[in-house]
Amino acid sequence: MDYTYIEPDKISEMLFDESEYVIEFCEAGVLSFTEFKDNFHNHLLDRNMKQLREAGHKIKPGAKMMGADEVVDNYEKAKVRLEEDAPDEELKELVDTMDSICATIIDELEHLAQNPE
């Protein structure tokens, strides 16, 4: 599999190339990105900056550890656009982009969990 967002080698190295740890990390990542995707969607469209920041604060370290910088970049862009009172349609486009990124990351993590070596 070609990975678009996560860096399996970076994850494995960080976890001492232990398959068991990689599997646990991936499983936790699937849960985290699923939760983040839902929270990002709801809080951005509700224009709730406080809750959006909380969601971002929780996902940023994990995203950075696995090399998924696009999540952080899109989150930061969304915060700026929300502060600038962007139109609803633009916020919806940011949500759609993040949904797509997170769905791909979840697929990649599930694949890596099944093939940690």
UniProtKB/TrEMBL annotation:
Keyword entries, A-Z: Coiled coil, Dioxygenase, Oxidoreductase
InterPro entries linked to this entry: HPT_dom_sf (IPR036641)
Domain of life of the native organism = Bacteria
GO molecular function terms attached to this record:
dioxygenase activity
Q: Which residues form a coiled coil?
A: 65-92
Q: What is this protein called?
A: Taurine dioxygenase
Q: From which organism does this entry originate?
A: Fodinibius salicampi
